[in-house]
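User: Predict MBL fold metallo-hydrolase's structure from this.
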Amino acid sequence: MDGQPLHIPDGVMYCQIETFNGVKDYAPRIPCVRLFGVSLSSFQNEEWANASGCEVHILDISIRDWLSLANRARLELSARWYKALRSFDEEAVPPNSSKESLWVEVTYKLAHGPSDSYAYPAFTGSAPTYIGIDTVAFVRGPALPSFAMTSNVPLHRVQGSEHDWKLEGFHVGQGMCSVFHNDESGFLLDAGAGTPVNRDSYQAQKIANELMPLVKKLATSDTRLPMIISHPDADHWRILDWDVELLNRVGPVYLPSGRPSLAFNSHIIKPRVYGIGTQTLFHSGAASLSVYRSAPTSSDKNGECLVTVCEAAGKKALLPGDYVYKRMKSETGTPISILSAGQFDAVVVPHHGDEASSEQVFLPVGSESKAFFSAGTHQGYGHPTQSSIDAHRAVGFDILEDHAQRDIVSVPLIP
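Assistant:
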C-alpha cells in the first residue's frame, strides 16, 4: 500500500464536497476541506452514470489554501451556501436538486515536493500526489443519481451458521466500524476511521490493527465479506480506500437506497454496490441481522441512512450510524420508530456521541448493557461529549470509551 503515486487528471477536477472539517492524513496534519473529484471528460460526459462507474479521486485542500481561494470565487451562491462555505457548517449546506448540483472546479499544478494539498485516486491505496492549488470556483452541473432500491436481495447463506455469533466494535478514531460474525462468516458494518487514526500511519503499519486479522479469517479466497454502510460519509468507509486488501475481501456493499454518492460511483467499487431498504439480511436460529431504511422528518446526509440491529444468543445490539435517538423516535409508524420502545444489550452510540446523542437515549436491558462510543480527537467536533456519556450512564449503560486510542482495537459488544 501507499507505493508510488498513481496518475491524477491533468490540471483540473470537478468535485463534490465531502467535508469542510477534515484533517489532513499527511504532515502537517492541519484542517482541510475534503472533496471527491472527477476529470473534465468524466464531468462533461457524466461518466459516473455508467454501469461501470468512472475514476474518482480524493482531494484534501488545506484550510489556508481553501480560505484564500474559495473566497475569491465569483459565483452568486445562495445565502445558505455562503453561510456553509464561510462557517464550515456542513448541516447548513442545502441539498442538491434532482436535476442540478453545485460542483467545485479545482485547478492545480503538480508540486515539486510535499505541499499543503494533495490528491489520489480513490480505492487504490495510492500514495498522494502533492499539488499547488491555482483556483477554486463554484459551478452548476448535473446532479448525481441516487442509488436505486435493489429488489429481491436474498438472505445471506453463511458458513457455520449454527456457531455462536458475536458483535465486535472497533476503536477507529473519528469513525465507525464493527463486525458481526461467528468466527467463520460475518458482516462488516461500516469501516471508517479518523483522527488520531490516519491514512499515513495505517498504510505504513505504524499502528496495531485488530480488524484485518479477523477480516482475513472471515473472508477467504472463496467468500467475500458482505458490508453494510450506514450512510456514505467517508468516516464510515475510509478504510476501504486505505487498504486494497480489505477492499478486495469485501462485497456486496449495501448502501441506503435513494442517496447519491460520487465516491461509490468509482469504477473500482460500483459493480458491487447495492442500494437497499428495510429488510433482514441474515437469520439463523437465534442469530439475525436486519437493516432499517430511515424515513427522516427532514432530509440531510446523516438522516438518509441504514440502521442495523444484530441479535445473537438472546441479546440485541443497535447500530444507528449518525442517526440520533430523537430522530429515530420522531419517525411515525415506521419500523425504526418501533425500535425506540425496545431495550438493547449494546448500542454503538449515534453520531460518535455528539450533543444530540444525549437526548432521548434508548434504554438498556440491564446494568451489563454496553454503550460503545466510537470517536476520536477531532478538536472541532469534540466527540464524545460529556453530556452524552453522562446520559448513557444515567439510564444504566456500561460506558466503553477511549477516544484517544491510536490503534485499531476490538471491543466485544454482544453476547
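Residues 11-142 form one domain.
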